[in-house]
């Protein structure tokens, strides 16, 4: 088993933190997205869409979406549970995970990719066709969506110390990775959002945050 | 238990098809997205993000993301399996489901929302902040992404009659709903994509497609 990874990228980091929380170590193959290595022939033979992370099993089966990788490890090693322990909790984690992904991670990606010169012809992650040029208006839309995201986050954390109940889950991982990602484009947790600040300090202090 | 639904919208339809395949019937509350009822005070009290579908349990617990709703029903009634039967199959369904969602459903939403006059101030689904204006350049980007999506779909269907192996899963549901959705903006399965045409005829003929 091996993980095609990219140290600087937020989606592979979600998988690395998940694995670190489970105490699972697997070999990693580094692929440099910034230099476009993910769109070169070697990696496109692994994943034609050019996206990371990818988990490859010993029989060659590949999982090319981060949530599928996490779900697979949760299935084969349930402890500690990161995707919920009961049907209701699993659904609540899925709800929150997706909110953090769409409102945080995807919005951050819009701001980053449509700002950064390395991605001027790669507005959409990955490959598979003609160049898709950056759309400057997405930077503003992404910033507006992230302002909403931070508002929601502060509300969600009124109810519980973690995003779903009293323990750390995948929803926290996605939110944490989205926040560290948008710091690259100088977007920070608003100073007035004290619950989010406290939550962030606590998740950033976990050993897995170094993964 | 009840489902907040919108008959014309593609995401609620994913949940309705999933439930129909399971043979589960639950009461539905119709909310008109086109007229903005999802952004009115009554529905925002149910889901502050203004998105559909939402499943409400008898104890008031709410799941406000379609995949969470589907996962909950798969957990409480596993047959027929629509999210995979083994850890590997579940991960493969998740991979494919997400591809159909990001490359098909989200791209279709970009084309639709940034074209349709009813959504001129609602480029991003749902509410929660200031108006986010339509971005005309997203129409082209969405169309390019959908061209990729149809290319992938034809390739995936080389390997198996359904998107993951030999039976119908959530990945097929999402793809089918994305295709019916993009027909509204006159985007169709390319005539040359014969496997996709055949697959589409087969999934559209299932009784659940009427849901």
Characterization of this structure:
Two copies of one chain form a homodimer. With 211 residues, chain A is mostly helical. Chain A folds into two domains: 2-76, Glutaredoxin; 87-210, Glutathione S-transferase Yfyf (Class Pi), Chain A, domain 2, CATH 1.20.1050.10. In chain A, 49% of the residues lie in helices and 6% in strands. The first copy, chain A, has seven helices and four strands. Chain A has a four-stranded mixed sheet. In chain A, β1, α1 and β2 form a beta-alpha-beta unit. In chain A, α4 runs parallel beside α6 (170-182). The model of chain A has no long low-confidence stretch (mean pLDDT 93).
Features:
4 strands; 211 residues; four-stranded mixed β-sheet; homodimer; mainly alpha; 2 domains; Glutathione S-transferase Yfyf (Class Pi), Chain A, domain 2; Glutaredoxin
Taken in chain order, the helices and strands of chain A follow as EHEHEEHHHHH
State mean pLDDT of chain A (0 to 100 scale): 93
Largest sheet of chain A: 4 strands, mixed
Poorly predicted runs of chain A are none
CATH class of the largest domain in chain A: Mainly Alpha
Helix content of chain A: 40-55%
Rough outline of chain A? globular
The CATH topology annotation of the largest domain in chain A reads as: Glutathione S-transferase Yfyf (Class Pi), Chain A, domain 2
